[in-house]
Amino acid sequence: MKIIRFDELKAVPWKNGLGITRELAVEPAGASMEDFAWRVSIADVDTASPFSVFPGIDRTIVLIEGAGFTMVIDGEREHALTTPCEPFAFPGEAKVDVRLAGGATRDFNLMVRRGVCSATLKVVHGPRTLEHASLAYLVKGYADADGTMLGPGDSAIAPSALALAEHGIAIAVFA
Questions:
Q1: CA 3 to chain centre
Q2: How does strand 38-45 pair with strand 105-113?
Q3: What per-residue confidence (pLDDT) applies to 55?
Q4: Distance of alpha carbon 40 from alpha carbon 173, whole angstroms
Q5: CA distances (Å), origin 164, targets 70, 121, 155, 170
Q6: Cβ distance 149 to 109 under 8 Å?
Q7: Cβ neighbours of residue 147 under 8 Å, at least 6 residues apart?
Q8: Cα-based distances in Å from 155 to 1, 81, 102, 114, 159
Q9: S-S: 22 plus which of 9, 39, 101, 163, CB 3.0-4.6 Å?
Q10: What pLDDT, in 10s, does the model give residues 115-158?
């Protein structure tokens, strides 16, 4: 198991250079944007910039901070990502423009390369114990990951068990 504190994450430009993201995990370790099987990151959205395009990638996004935004997908369909901790899946090759609902937001992103692997994302509310998660990100409250305390913004990579405290919220990835 590995613990990652949010303040240890390095902010890097989006693939299209119009925002910043912080990579939590990538499989296989050290994989690039062209050859990852799955990838998890935290993105900051502070302008109405379009999302980066990722052909062949299935994406799931979850609002974790802020008022959110409306996604305009391929100029045709709209989705309001304004409810915290409510996952939304969309194809990475879609052209996505955004309209902010308020100020800056932060979201959790799972990207999975189609045909290479599968991964699922679940939002979990405490009290509850999770087992066999590939990654658990704590959105709210506290959790114990194999004896190490986690606070909001902390992540555990491959914990054998994550005990989520009452009123805690975590996003778990199973890959």
A1: 16
A2: antiparallel
A3: 96
A4: 9
A5: 30, 16, 12, 8
A6: no
A7: none
A8: 10, 23, 27, 25, 10
A9: 9
A10: 999 999 999 999 999 999 999 999 999 999 999 999 999 999 99
49, amino acid identity: S
**Nearest Cα to Cα of residue 61 among 37, 42, 78:** 42
pLDDT of residue 13: 83
pLDDT of residue 71: 96
CA distance 43 to 59: 13
The predicted model scores a pTM of 0.93
155/120 Cα distance (integer angstroms): 17
Residues 6+ apart with CB under 8 A from 111: 36, 38, 39, 40, 41, 54, 57, 58, 59, 92
Residues of the chain scoring pLDDT < 70:
none
Q: What is the pLDDT of residue 15?
A: 81
